[in-house]
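Input sequence (343 aa), recorded before submission:
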Amino acid sequence: MSQRPRRRASDTRKEQAPNSAPALVGAGVLLAILVGWFAWQFTNTLVPVRDGAPSWHPTEAKLVFYSEQSVPGEAGAEPSWQADLFEMNLDGSGRLNLTNTPEADEGGPAYSPNGRYLAYDTDRDGNYEIYLRDFEAPDGTPDRRLTNNGARDLSPAWDETSQTIVFMSDRSSPFFDVYELDVFVEGAVPRRLPTGPSNCVEDPTASSNWFPQYSPDGTQLAMHVCRDVHVMTLEGYAIRRLTYEPSDGMYPSWSPDGAELAFMSARNGRMEIFRMQEDGTEQERLLTMPTGGAIDPRWSPDGQYIVFVHVSEASPQAEQTPEGDRAMYLLELATGRVRRLSR
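Predicted structure, token format:
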């Protein structure tokens, strides 16, 4: 597992999911070729950057994301990388640095559905905790720390009420579990959700649950366990497994109507972006890149786009290249056009 698990779902990892539609898969391949051609034009003309974990604003055409900057090493030592949070319009304008912590990393940003708050994780306290920014607070108001534990608390996501978050934490075991927290209830403590045992083929004792996301109506959670997408109901905690390794799936993202999920998969030997119905049927490849991999898809609030991150590494097993490109791209679903957002 990487030192920054929030940024690399590909560090985690039998049959085909049921009822895949051949016609849709064929259309997906054609679209993937088209998309790859456009992506190639951008990938080979721009300077490498290190952006990731994009999250959509609920009502405005902008994203929040982390961007890593090189920090020179001492006395000839290799430079390190430090991540701050930024906000940017979809046309690349209005880039705004939201955090400036030279000695710490921020990541996993998520706007609340009402647009007032931003939850994120940071190691500014020596280990990763969840913090909250209130955009309506008076200038100079410090961000509020929501968790306080010696373990790693990462990757928050909001429910539809903008009152509750889920996040992943290894506070109870060596593996990540899902916790839920009522953000604005005084004295509230995170509660562990019964996500159940893992389906890990390599290690059945592992129970890591990665990158939970509320459904738009707040009744379900999507996450990936090892290398497969699962959905859990929040009433009764029934769990459904939607992908089956080696036709794996990671980092799920709901469509705004809750009918579909986008996810990334290495089922073809490299990381690509897929979509499927909420019940796991009609799995279709949306995008493959000419080089490297496509990870971390996030569906736009209007349903027209998916933002994702292009990485130099094509396979989930590959070590992250220190100087490799990690750039955000925008996929327009209706046309298959791809546009690079990172600058």
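Checked by second reader. Residues 109 and 241 are 26 Å apart (CA to CA).
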